[in-house]
Amino acid sequence: MAEAATAVALAATPALATGETPVAEGTVLRVLPPRALVRLQLPRRAIAAAGTLRIGDTPLPTTPGRCAGDDPALLWLAPDGWLLISDHHDGAALAGEARRACGERTVAAVDVSDALVGFELAGARVRELLSRGTGLELSDETLAPGRCARTRLAQLAVIVRPRAAERVELIVDRGPAAWLRDWFVDAGGLL
Amino acid sequence: MLKITCPWCGPRDEPEFTYGGQSHVARPSFDVDDATWARYLFVRDNPKGIHFERWCHTYGCAQWFNVARDTVSHEVLAVYRMGEPKPELGA
Ligand SMILES: [Zn+2]
């Protein structure tokens, strides 16, 4: 009986639809195509020199909440942690490049391409929607391209990466990604 | 809700953080008697006023740091990184 219930629950789990989901007037949530995502973590002793490390041609950003580079893009997540994003590399190759660039045996560069899902939220009501689920400051300054923030959004840890005035990228664990999409649909309905 | 200024990320809402108990609890040497060891393990300050405590920015940069908070007003009086000295805040 318990097994049957589990099977029903799994079958009912909504697959993560690709394409665009309208979430509010003039505002859509789009699942981004798969790309290379690498979580880079440096050992404590290497942090002081992190700014001198270059991945691709870009120095690792050491200012909290900043991104650098285009492809790969390097997102500051913590004093010792970054997320690397590339449309042109394969995840394992990007992880290898990061390891070589850091030249440390103890550096952790992990291919998390399949562990995370990227969304793009775009439209006139982006800021309003975000404000329903996060306490993050949503000023023009913090929502500017070149910034990024890991924050609590819809009860989840989400990386927020502004791409343009009314366009933000949201990166979340794959497990609750469908929940985040459904949350935006609900939040949009309540605006 | 508290607004806590993470030493790295800046001001964020309290639900982004995890409380980690009193700061600056120093482990005694291993040869102390049981009563001293038990005090180290289980006894904590419970002040009416300034309390030094650890918080982790779980939903942000995931770093542990220290907060000095007034337990009466909940005002956050100081935020400082692990390893930095406890600030002088008067009584
Ligand atoms: Zn933080």
Into which percentage range does the β-strand content of chain B fall? 35-45%
Going by CATH, the homologous superfamily of chain B would be Folate-binding superfamily
CATH architecture of chain B: 2-Layer Sandwich
Can you identify the CATH superfamily of the largest domain in chain A? Answer: Probable tRNA modification gtpase trme, domain 1
Shape of chain A: globular
Element order of chain A: H for helix, E for strand: HEEEEEEEEHEEHEEEH
Low-confidence stretches of chain A: 9-13
The tally of structural domains of chain B comes to 1
What sequence of helices (H) and strands (E) makes up the elements of chain B? Answer: EEEHEEE
- Going by helix content, strand content and strand pairing, the class of chain A is alpha+beta
Give the percentage of residues in beta strands of chain A: 35-45%
Mean pLDDT of chain B: 96
Named once each, the bound ligands are: zinc ion
CATH class of the largest domain in chain A: Alpha Beta
CATH topology of chain B: Folate-binding fold
Mean pLDDT of chain A: 91
Task: Describe, in short, the structure shown.
With 191 residues, chain A is an alpha+beta fold. Chain A has helices spanning 2-12, 91-102, 126-131, 177-189; strands spanning 20-24, 27-31, 36-41, 54-55, 58-59, 67-68, 73-78, 81-86, 108-111, 116-123, 149-153, 156-164, 167-173.
